[in-house]
Amino acid sequence: MVPSISFESELAELLPRLRRFAYTLSRSAADADDLTQASVERALKSRGQWQEGTRLDSWAYRIMRNLWIDTVRSRSRRDRVEAPAEEADRLGEDPTASMDAAVDLSRMMAAMERLPDEQREVVALILIEGFGYRETAEMLDVPIGTVSSRLVRGRTALLGMVGA
Amino acid sequence: MGWWGHDVVTDEKFFAWLDGELEGDEAKMVADEVAADPGLARKAEEHRALQRRLSDAFGTIATAPLPDALAVPTRHEPEVVDLAAARRARQSGGWSGLPQWAAIAATLAIGIFVGTMVPHRSDGPVMVEGGRVYAAAALDQALTEQLASAPSGDTRIGLTFRDQAGAICRSFTQGPSSGLACRNGSRWQVRGLFGSPEGQSGSYRMAAGMDPNLAGLVDSTMAGEPFDASQEMAAKDKGWR
């Protein structure tokens, strides 16, 4: 086995999912792609800290989430220049994606953006990225009950915003 | 199971059930409650629909093509070159040669490249954008359209193969230089470009085979075997993805 090869190729395979997570966290497509690239670079620099045999995806998501927190906390909210409603236009074309889903993305991003950060990340990790409660709790370093109650509040608020 | 702590269907418990986090008796208890309560059943359906919408909407990002700027840089820096990988690639049918070639070639690639191969010419074979080097003009066209078996113009395509990250790479010779480019989104990112020494003619190079520096770079980049003619054709038809 050659660790560096599997590390790089596994990270490359994760890229679309990491990018999706970045979109759930970020306020604009440009921010999301910047966050994705920064996370990949951080992951490559920190590869020595990843333990083989453990999940690379959780580790990489954690890196992205930490970077996102650093970015959000250090940045003024006034520099939100792009309305989330326009984001779907920037995604690039995928003829296989249904138009409806692409259009709905704008509404979903706008709704996600209105959630408090701690609810948004839990909704993203569990409802969109498919992690379990326990995995999410470990990733975020919070008790599982905290994950559960944030998820209740987040999804209830989301449903109120976008309807059923 | 007891981390929910109650025997009534709290929101936490209801959603844990909906998300498949409950097991056994606890799951059955909530399922029974939901079945018996139209309000809870409707709530379950609304939230399932919400999750489907979230998955579908954000799923469009996971399936969209990645922008050119997004990539895991695999073999750009000499210190990243993995000698064990080069050795392994060679054992699986690559070139014969010294293991250090990979590292040497990568160093030379960058040195020669920056020094001589990127003059400020608008019609040159490569262009630099955002710190990356891409094939341009006729080279880009040849990499995209030409098959190794059917050379045309002054660019010849050599090997086509996938790198460790799964990107398709092609080696090429154009006039006095030869190099390696790998697909990055809709473009060809040049991983290495080598100039032949003065006085070394095209026919001499042809007879001598692949530039040893390029051979080393190819050796360290390739995962598996090079494509045969039909694989090359199929890859072309799929847009080199």
Explain briefly what this protein structure is.
The complex is a heterodimer of chains A (164) and B (241). Chain A is mainly α.
CATH C-level of the largest domain in chain A: Mainly Alpha
The figure for the number of domains of chain B is 2
Low-confidence stretches of chain B: 1-6, 75-84, 89-122, 197-208
Strand pairing plus helix content of chain B: what structural class?
alpha+beta
Overall number of strands of chain A = 0
Q: How many distinct beta strands of chain B?
A: 7
Order of helices and strands of chain B: HHHHHEEHEEEEHHEH
Q: H/E series of chain A, N to C?
A: HHHHHHH
Helix content of chain B: 40-55%
**Strand percentage of chain B:** 15-25%
Ends apart, CA distance between termini of chain A? 49 Å
* Beta-strand content of chain A: under 5%
- SS field, number of helical segments of chain A: 7
The assigned CATH architecture of the largest domain in chain A is Orthogonal Bundle
What can be said about the biggest beta sheet of chain A?
none
Shape of chain B: elongated
List unreliable stretches of 5+ residues of chain A.
Answer: 76-97
| CATH topology group of the largest domain in chain A | Rna Polymerase Sigma Factor, Chain: A
Please, could you describe this protein's structure?
The complex is a heterodimer of chains A (164) and B (241). Chain A is mostly helical and 164 residues long. Chain A has two domains: 1-75, Orthogonal Bundle (Rna Polymerase Sigma Factor, Chain: A); 99-164, Arc Repressor Mutant, subunit A (Orthogonal Bundle). Helix content of chain A is 69%, strand content 0%. Chain A has seven helices and no strands. Chain A has helices at 3-25, 29-45, 56-74, 99-113, 117-128, 133-140, 144-162. Residues 76-97 of chain A have low confidence and may be disordered. Chain B is α+β, with helices and mostly antiparallel strands. Chain B has two domains: 11-63; 78-237, no CATH class. Chain B has nine helices and seven strands; from the N terminus they run αααααββαββββααβα. In chain B, the strands form two sheets. Chain B has a five-stranded antiparallel sheet. A two-stranded antiparallel ribbon of chain B has the order 1-2. In chain B, a hairpin with a 2-residue loop joins strand 1 and strand 2. In chain B, helix 2 crosses helix 3 (38-63) and helix 5 (101-117) packs across helix 8 (212-221). Chain B is elongated, with a radius of gyration of 27 Å. Mean pLDDT of chain B is 73; it is low at 1-6, 75-84, 89-122 and 197-208. The chains are: A mainly alpha (164), B alpha+beta (241). Chains A and B meet through helix 1, helix 2, helix 4, helix 5 and helix 7 of A and helix 1, helix 3 and helix 4 of B.
